[in-house]
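User: I'm putting together a teaching handout on how sequence relates to shape, and I'd like one worked example. Could you take Acyltransferase from Oncorhynchus tshawytscha, show the sequence you're using, and then write out its predicted structure as tokens right after it?

Assistant: Happy to. First the sequence, then the structure tokens directly below it.
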Amino acid sequence: MTTRLGSSPGTGYSILSSLQDLPSPPWPALRSKMEKHLQVIAVLQWVISFLTMGISCTVLLIYMFCTDLWVIAAMYTTWLIFDWNTPKQGGRRSSWVRNWTVWTYFRDYFPIRLIKTHNLLPSRNYIFGYHPHGIFSFGAFCNFGTEATGFSKKFPGIKPSLATLAGNFRMPILRDYLMSGGICPVTRNSIDYLLSQNGTGNAVVIVVGGAAESLDCAPGMNSVTLNNRKGFVRLALQQGSDLVPVYSFGENNVYKQVIFEEGTWCRLAQKRLQKILGFAPCLFHGCGLFSDSWGMVPYNKPITTIVGEPITVPKVEEPTRDMVELYHAMYIKSLRSLFDKYKTRFGLKESDILHIQ
């Protein structure tokens, strides 16, 4: 028996060779594909939630008053009235929500990175100026509205509060969803509360260019709306909060947009609607759900957010115009320096410049 087995010395090698030639199990490829789908769903749920959750929940609440569920609607409305000022008084953030696994899929879709350049002192308060706005400010939300990129580990003792349109906090359910991420209204009362009545270690993140800037965002554009945006500087002086420039490379690359020239009736209509609605009606598109066709899903282009060096700001209750101009100029200089220092590391050329309008 032993001799007969031993008489075929190549048999074992042949079996091993045949096994090696077999196709590898599909599990790694299947898992990778599944993760990609989860990433798309994670991003799309945020886009849809931001665009439709508020109005959908408002309509649903009104409808419930016409059904046998009116008691639930009445109870929620009563609580809503009682809780109306909470967004303006520090909100109601949830560490559990900020650490949801869905945000890691959201982060990995693009992917989004957060880079720290300097330490921030927990004994100070800060105003982060975020640039550029892009269409949905994905970098701002992921970095400061969640813990997906590890903000709290990179900046221990600092609590970020991303400021967005106050109208969002008048919408049932949406307001609670936003507050759970530490998001607050971009109003004077709300920001004053965070910087003066909430202790130290607060960082209010303001997308300085706002809706107007979103009308000029497109792949390859390095333009920010800042020259006439000085209110955040005055606020920093009144509260004695340090200014921190933040720039996100790639924020403008995730959607394509039709940009109308200044003076055309389409551009005028956009600006008019912006003043009425509070946000800009951009004509943009990304890709399809699981294909390269047009759709609402953003293109998976990397977004890298650089948090710059803080500018120390004294507390001046009644800052003069010259003082506001001085710190505004310092901020612009710091933002330009931040852009120029990191631009070649993230796909731009040395000749590319930051256009400030």
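A couple of points you could highlight for students: The mean pLDDT is 89. The longest helix spans residues 27-64.
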